[in-house]
Structures are given as structure tokens and as C-alpha cells.
Amino acid sequence: MTYFSAQHRDPAMEVFEQHLQGVIPQHFGRFIDGEPLNLGEQLSDHMHLHLFVWPPTVQRNMWTLVTAGMSAHRMNVPPGFEQYERIELVMTLPAEWPPIDEIHQMSSNRTETYSWPFDELNHLARLPYLHNTWLGRGHTVRAHPSLDDTYPGTQFSGVLVEAVGSLASEAMSV
Q1: Cβ 75 vs Cβ 148: under 8 Å
Q2: Could you give the CA distance from residue 83 to residue 134 in angstroms, rounded to a whole number?
Q3: Average pLDDT value for the chain
Q4: Nearest C-alpha neighbor of 118 from the set 7, 172, 47, 40
Q5: Mean of the pLDDT values across residues 43-52?
Q6: 106, 136, 140, 144: which could join 110 in a potential S-S bond, CB 3.0 to 4.6 Å?
Q7: Residue 131: CA atoms inside 13 Å, Cβ hemisphere, count?
Q8: Single pTM value for the model
Q9: Per-position DSSP letters for 28-91, written without gaps between them
Q10: Count of alpha carbons within 13 Å of 124, Cβ hemisphere only?
Q11: Stretch 107-127: mean pLDDT
């Protein structure tokens, strides 16, 4: 596992993370129309993570969220799963989901209802790094410690990591 903090940043890791910030949107841009919104962090005490968000289009009637920075850090995969050491996460949301600027203007309880997918992707991208573990197909992560707790405004109690079915298979490797 790479030691990575605001006080002890590895310059080579910084370069690789910056590289991903250019490569990831360019790569996914071959499969998704339009320009993504870059929700990048100004300062991070762990990994430097960006979240690229493509709005719905006529050709692709859904929001598409893609992390950039998770794959800079190798995950602690078990023997035989080395091909999964480096991944990024993709999540889609219905076309009716409000735009980011609209979410930011909502009252705090309504904001939670629509901001949880963005928060969850940030959390999931850091989880393997912070806990010396890995995420792969079939893994589930609960929203809260209790199975009865759900994401705000939903009936969802967790996420399932699975292959992306809404993009061409070529989109899944760079």
C-alpha cells in the first residue's frame, strides 16, 4: 500500500494522478457524448480524486459518473486477481436526476437526497486505499452500519460493484 498524505505526497504518484485526470475523460469521451463536468478536489489528505460527470444526451439518456485517481493506487487483491489491482468506478443515474448546480441550490435535506451518489463514489474509491483491501465484481458495500438504513431519499441500503452494462466493453480498459 502506498503511504499518501498531504504532508508526505509521493511526487511520482502526483504525476500519475494528474495523468489519469487527462486520460480518463478522454478515454470515456470516445463512448459518451458531450463534455464532462470535472468535480476535482482542490486538496486531499489521501489520494487525489476527480469525479467526471457527463450529463444526459439524446444518444445516452442518463447521467454518467466516472472516478479518476483510484487506479493510481494498487489495491490489495488476492492471488489470481492481479488484473483488478487498478480500477476506476462508473455509476449511472437517471436522466431526470437534477444537475449539480441545481443540487447545490437545494435545501440541505433535499441536497442529501441527490448528492449521495457523488459522495458514495468518493467513499468507494478511497475504501481500498484506506483499509488495505480491494473492490471487484460482486462486492457489496452497505450505505450505513445498519441494514435498515438507506441512502437519503431512497430505498437503497448499499451498492453492488459490477461490470458496466451501459457502455461498450471496450470502454472498460484503457
Answers
A1: no
A2: 12
A3: 88
A4: 40
A5: 79
A6: 106
A7: 9
A8: 0.89
A9: HHTTS-SPPEEEE-S--SS---EEEEEPP-SSS-EEEEEEESGGGS---PPTT-GGGSS---EE
A10: 27
A11: 93
Alpha carbon distance 125, 73 (integer Å): 10
CA separation (Å) from 15 to 47, 74, 118, 161? 12, 15, 24, 28
| Contact call for residues 19 and 8 (beta carbons, < 8 A) | no
Report yes or no: 32 and 64 within 8 Å, Cβ to Cβ. yes
Tell me the C-alpha to C-alpha distance, in Å, between residue 124 and each of 21, 70, 141.
Answer: 18, 9, 8
Give the per-residue pLDDT at 4: 44
Name the phi and psi angles at 162, rounded to 5. Answer: -150, 170
Q: Would you state the cell numbers that stand for residue 40, as one nine-digit string?
A: 476535482
Phi, psi of 62 (to 5 degrees): -165, 160
* Encoded amino acid at 171, one letter: A
Return all residues near 126 (Cβ < 8 A) that are at least 6 apart: 46, 47, 49, 70
Question: Rounded to 5, what percent of the chain is helix, strand, coil?
Answer: 35, 15, 50
Cα–Cα dist 147/2, whole Å: 32
Q: How many CA atoms lie within 13 A of 32 on its CB side?
A: 26
